[in-house]
Design a protein that fits this description.
single chain, alpha+beta, four-stranded parallel β-sheet, 20 strands, globular, disordered N terminus, disordered C terminus
Length: 721
């Protein structure tokens, strides 16, 4: 909690500890300084919190931390040391910095705030929301981004239209000018162009705007506070509607303090108790003046609050994405004071001019000293930056580590558990902030719903980043997995050929189930071969490899598919020629084993050309050719103990008799196949190589032996599993 808020700040502050550090650095070497820095970074024995002010130039920030809250000020760059508790910087913070922070540390910027602070980003985000909600997002002047929207902007020039052009990233009124002529604009330079509001609200004949301070202390969920006090900045020249003669008079059309303070007509405020005097006044004094003029100030404030909330809704997904502290369920490691510049027209309608992520905290007048000192002090109090809170967070982390050591694993919370923890922290935060708001007012969350704006902003962000495409793909995959596996026979299953193993199973299942239709006469002939009482010939093996049901289509279902599906399968198998080469060799091995059986030797020699290539079989179907295929297939470890249908023959004697003849037939068939296909699907086959083939899930009792592989001219080796 803060102490002695009544301490007066006169605009100057010097820290004695900083002077001592500077003097010691003059007499110490770099090695000694580095050692001291390491010692300080390892231990923080100070009872007071450490506030890092190495990257801020404002004396009021150091004064509030040192004199009011009794913080120990630290001047070592916060990127080089990590023992600070609270950091105040004048520059933007990167997501990497937030990711390295500990749970008890706090910093005064949100990563990704460029989406509001940069004029071009602010204009783009608001324009996207205006396309969907044209009536709701009419609180800012019509805006164009140059040079990307130069052609559209060029068409806007007409009768007595005045435009104001601002650089994309500038402050304090630098580079701003008014124009009525398109020729005065360089089409290649980057500007943010806006329609000039030519009927502003005037006080004492002067144009003015409001600098309102908004505190964002949470992005997920969004949490906004509006400071009840601010500044009213007046121009120093009496306002006249813009014309060709006064477009260059910046002290008439611009209200920036940095521009008007150098004008000899500028009146400085010399007494904080007289807030309604001079060209820089308090916001409350302006509202009181409007009330005295019977203006509806309450409605004006309600419109300003609505304007602020809608502006944050347009960038909330960006801030949430850049907030990299996923375990910070309290949503309180970052906060930021933003300066909203509001212009009021003659009908008392507020317009958003720009947003400043580092509003100036210079205190060259008593009014600045009073307002900005209390603003910073109330912010630190509202964010609950104190020793007690720090110790509670550290103790909670220690308890989590002890549980992890005892259990040996990190507990993973479900989505519902995370929501409950967030709600619990939110309740504790609401209770604390309701009693320590100071001069702040909570404007969001509120009774009015802004969910539709947040949802549309999220949709825009996902379309911009491509997150919606990934989410839709994930939903489609989940829907496919949830579909029932058992479909009706009238609806054939889709063929899935994504991996080599699936392709192997697919083609083999087609061979095993008579994929290619045959004539009824041929089917009857094949059935007449096996008569009652006779044993099954050895060329038809009972055991077949197990095929995955998801990739297995029976012949009856496949017959119902059209000829176009077979054409697609043919085209796909031609692309996967390398995998089909293995099947050709397996078929070749199968023929080699069958030739050892004398009673079926001649039958296999006649059909060897039809068995060698599955691609030729598929093409045969397209040409209307009826090809008889083997119904069952397997790879045996050996061909021992095969029973003959007619009579039993001794295998050893039988092999000796037909060894030479079978080898000659195999070589002759191989030469014929090579001559007919001198250059195959993947190039000419020149030299045979022997590789070891392995099946991913072979049938029990079977093993695929080493087979000769015919490879391409470059002798590239391929591994198949």
């Amino acid at each position: 909690m803060k102490q002695e808020k009544e301490i007066i700040f006169n605009g100057d502050f010097e820290d004695s500890e900083e002077e001592e550090d500077d003097q010691s650095q003059d007499y110490e070497s770099d090695e000694e300084l580095n050692k001291k820095k390491k010692k300080k970074s390892l231990l923080n024995t100070n009872k007071n919190l450490i506030m890092n002010v190495s990257d801020t130039q404002y004396a009021v920030v150091k004064f509030v931390g040192k004199m009011i809250y009794k913080f120990k000020l630290q001047y070592v760059p916060y990127q080089e040391i990590n023992n600070w508790d609270f950091c105040w910087t004048d520059n933007a913070v990167l997501p990497e910095t937030l990711a390295k922070m500990q749970s008890h540390q706090k910093i005064n910027h949100f990563p990704g705030m460029y989406s509001l602070a940069r004029k071009n980003h602010l204009g783009k985000n608001l324009n996207k929301m205006q396309k969907q909600f044209p009536e709701e997002y009419d609180f800012y002047p019509r805006t164009w981004m140059l040079p990307s929207e130069y052609n559209d902007f060029k068409q806007q020039f007409g009768k007595a239209k005045t435009f104001i052009l601002k650089p994309e990233a500038s402050c304090q009124g630098k580079g701003i000018f008014l124009t009525r002529c398109i020729e005065s604009i360089n089409p290649t330079e980057h500007y943010v162009a806006q329609r000039y509001i030519h009927k502003p609200l005037l006080i004492d004949g002067l144009k003015f705007d409001l600098r309102m301070y908004v505190l964002i202390c949470g992005c997920d969920p969004l949490r906004l506070y509006l400071y009840k006090e601010g500044l009213a900045r007046f121009a120093t020249q009496a306002y006249i509607v813009p014309n060709t003669n006064n477009l260059d008079d910046v002290c008439m059309h611009l209200t920036n303090y940095a521009i008007n303070k150098d004008n000899p007509n500028f009146i400085f405020n010399s007494d904080e108790k007289k807030m309604d005097v001079g060209h820089k006044r308090s916001m409350s004094s302006v509202f009181q003046l409007l009330r005295d003029q019977n203006q509806n100030v309450d409605q004006l404030l309600a419109d300003i609050k609505d304007l602020i909330i809608k502006t944050f809704c347009s960038v909330q997904p960006i801030l949430q994405q850049n907030y990299t502290q996923v375990d910070n369920y309290a949503n309180n490691m970052c906060f930021e004071i933003l300066g909203f510049d509001i212009l009021i027209d003659s009908s008392l309608k507020p317009y958003l001019l720009e947003v400043n992520h580092t509003p100036s905290f210079t205190t060259d007048t008593p009014l600045d000293q009073y307002i900005k000192k209390n603003l910073i002090a109330d912010t630190i109090t509202l964010m609950n930056i104190n020793v007690k809170t720090k110790n509670e967070v550290i103790q909670q982390k220690k308890d989590e580590m002890q549980k992890r050591v005892l259990t040996g694993k990190k507990t993973k919370l479900s989505i519902e558990e995370k929501k409950q923890i967030k709600l619990q922290f939110q309740k504790q935060r609401d209770e604390y902030e309701s009693q320590n708001k100071g001069n702040y007012e909570l404007i969001y969350p509120c009774s009015k719903s802004y969910e539709e704006f947040l949802q549309h902003s999220l949709k825009i962000y996902e379309e911009w980043t491509g997150a919606n495409i990934r989410r839709n793909q994930k939903k489609e995959s989940i829907q496919i997995n949830q579909e029932p596996q058992n479909k009706s026979q009238s609806q054939p299953k889709k063929i899935i050929l994504e991996k080599k193993s699936n392709l192997y199973k697919h083609v083999q299942s087609r061979i095993n189930t008579n994929l290619f239709p045959t004539n009824k006469n041929e089917q009857t002939k094949g059935n007449e071969v096996i008569q009652e009482g006779e044993e099954q010939p050895p060329n038809q093996i009972n055991t077949i490899p197990e095929v995955d049901n998801d990739h297995f289509v029976p012949y009856e279902d496949y017959q119902q598919q059209s000829l176009e599906s077979i054409k697609e399968l043919c085209a796909y198998t031609e692309k996967r020629g390398r995998e089909l080469q293995i099947l050709d060799l397996i078929q070749y091995r199968k023929v080699d084993n069958r030739l050892n059986n004398s009673h079926i030797q001649q039958q296999n020699v006649q059909n060897i050309q039809n068995i060698l290539s599955p691609i030729s079989q598929i093409k045969g179907v397209l040409q209307g050719m009826a090809i008889k295929n083997v119904k069952q297939f397997a790879i045996r470890k050996n061909n021992k103990n095969i029973k003959s249908s007619s009579k039993q023959i001794n295998e050893s004697e039988h092999d000796k008799l037909y060894e030479n003849s079978s080898k000659q037939l195999i070589l002759q068939s191989q030469l014929n196949y090579q001559q007919s296909n001198q250059q195959g699907l993947n190039g000419a086959y020149i030299k045979p190589k022997v590789f070891s083939l392995k099946l991913s899930h072979p049938p029990k009792g079977y093993k695929l032996q080493s087979l000769p592989l015919l490879i391409q001219q470059n002798y590239t080796k391929f591994r198949y599993e």
